[in-house]
Design goal:
heterodimer, A: Rossmann fold, two-stranded parallel ribbon, 16% strand, B: alpha/beta, Rossmann fold, seven-stranded parallel beta sheet, 7 helices
């Protein structure tokens, strides 16, 4: 056994949505902390900078290197400032982890056009803009890079959140295409599809019964957290995944592997 | 360390991806039993890795061999946490070119071998409250290819893909996770035996994979970092199937 170097030693990462929208640890916050713990310098970007500062405080208490930046990822100027800031502060940029996202429930009949446009903009266009601004810097400063986009199993299956599902399915298609477009520049692009994870984003519409139901919905019957998504992002960000591009990685306790409606644990089956 | 105090069995571990997995697992704190039919290479590898790796003869089509390897894990280390069903053979040829013997051999090693290994490991994993099974399929277990490896190979790797999901569903309540890994063409001896550069234009990243690139994916799935993952497919193919 030998001590290994940190998994992101020498890397510079940008994490969008690096703060959490409430108490607890969301996907972006978890990824930020794990990236820093594994040696990356991390630019923590959030629309609400005070949220990113909470993440920064945790990283600094652990002895990591990070800094915050206020940014609205729906604006190209802010995305460009974000990429330039990473270069100015840390000299290079290798990793872009796109976490910005919001929920939007409802059918096409129910959803307003404004809400539709908003969820498509926040969940999908932000990834396009952040990537558009960052990729040239990845090529010129880092010789390539790794982009991690956060979709959802709602992008793979109906989920009673039609506008959200549409935006998250779009993220998957966007990621596959970015992977093909920029492979020659040594830029990898992959997407994570979290399952029913309990994060600050979903917390406001949860109660104990619903959390219990969600925890037991998938075969592993355990509640997922932002950390589960963060560890997957860490793997995809690192050079360990240097031959992986254009994949969709479910982190869902087995939910999408089940034929819908048929899962009953073997030890509870009476008939099938 | 990411696999501290874990006990693992890796089939087909004497060379190629399996050998990298064995070395990486030990580096991350695991005790590893390397199973293979290439005894000399396996013993040399175990010696090279050090005292936390042992080699055992393992013909994955033999139920008796599997029982012996699992028994060794429990006798020696007291438990079994991780099984990597890595052993596999390639086969080329169209359906019409494939003999029944070829078909049986490929399905025997690539598909039945995974079944037997899983069957042997499950009771021991259940006894200690869970485990992680990683089955090596292929990108050709997901998509078809006319010029790549043959029909029998593809069928066997497709079998591994869905067998993994069945394992995940049937044993999730025992805390046992099962995920499949789908490498694209990787630069191993198995690949080198007659493959050409025919695949290269199909790979967006523009090169073959290296064995350690697959090993790191296996490590992730083996570790508790992937504790919310089961029934998933991890594709490591330089972008092939994203196209």
């Amino acid at each position: 056994m030998v001590d290994r170097p940190p998994r992101l030693e020498g890397k510079v990462a940008i994490v969008t949505g690096a703060g959490s929208s409430g108490e607890g640890v969301g996907n972006g916050k978890a990824a930020s902390i794990l990236f820093a713990r594994e040696g990356a310098k991390v630019l923590l970007v959030d629309f609400q900078e005070d949220r990113a500062r909470e993440t920064l405080q945790i990283i600094q208490e652990e002895g990591g290197v990070a800094s915050t930046l206020q940014g609205d990822m729906t604006k190209i100027e802010d995305c460009e400032l974000m990429a330039q800031t990473a270069i100015e502060r840390y000299g290079r940029v290798h990793i872009l982890d796109n976490n910005v996202g919001i929920s939007q429930r409802g059918t096409v009949v129910e959803v307003s056009e404004e809400d539709w446009d908003r969820v498509m903009t926040v969940n999908m266009k932000t990834i396009m803009l952040a990537s558009k601004a960052t990729i040239p810097h990845m090529i010129s400063s880092g010789g390539g890079g790794s982009i991690i986009n956060i979709s959802s199993i709602a992008g793979l299956r109906a989920h009673s959140s039609t506008p959200y599902s549409a935006s998250k399915a779009g993220v998957i298609g966007l990621t596959f295409s970015m992977a093909a477009d920029h492979a020659a520049d040594n830029i990898r692009a992959n997407v994570i599809a979290p399952g029913l994870v309990y994060t600050p984003m979903v917390a406001p519409r949860m109660n104990d019964d619903l959390r219990q139901f969600r925890s037991e919905a998938a075969p592993l019957k355990s509640e997922g957290t932002g950390w589960d998504v963060g560890y997957a992002a860490l793997f995809l960000a690192s050079d360990e995944a240097r031959w992986i591009t254009g994949i969709c990685l479910p982190v869902d306790a087995g939910l999408t592997a089940v034929h819908p409606g048929t899962y009953t644990p073997m030890n509870q089956q009476t008939r099938f | 360390m990411r696999l501290e105090n874990k006990v693992a069995i890796i089939s087909g571990g004497s060379r190629g991806m399996g050998a990298f997995e064995a070395a990486l697992f030990v580096q991350e704190g695991a005790k590893v039993i390397i199973g293979d039919v290439r005894d000399e290479e396996g013993r040399d590898l175990a010696k090279h890795i050090g005292s936390n790796a042992v080699y055992m003869h393992l013909d994955v089509t033999s139920e008796r061999d599997w029982a012996a390897v699992v028994k060794e894990a429990t006798d020696r280390y007291g438990k079994l946490d991780i099984l990597v069903n890595n052993a596999g053979v390639s086969a080329r040829g169209t359906i019409e070119e494939t003999s029944v013997d070829d078909w049986d051999r490929v399905m025997g090693i690539n598909a039945k071998g995974v079944f037997l290994g899983t069957k042997a490991a499950l009771p021991e994993m259940r006894r200690t409250g869970g485990g992680s099974i990683i089955n090596i399929s292929s990108q050709l277990g997901i998509v078809g290819s006319s010029f790549a490896s043959g029909a029998a190979y593809q069928a066997s790797k497709g079998a591994v893909r869905l067998f993994t999901k069945a394992t995940a569903m049937q044993y999730a309540s025992d805390g046992i996770r099962a995920n499949s890994v789908h490498p694209g063409p990787v630069d191993t001896d198995m690949m080198a035996s007659g493959q050409s550069t025919a695949y290269l234009p199909s790979i967006p990243i523009g090169r073959y994979g290296e064995p350690d690139e697959v090993a790191y994916g296996v490590l992730f799935l083996a570790s508790d970092e992937a504790s919310f993952m089961t029934g998933s497919e991890l594709v490591i193919d330089g972008g092939w199937t994203a196209q």
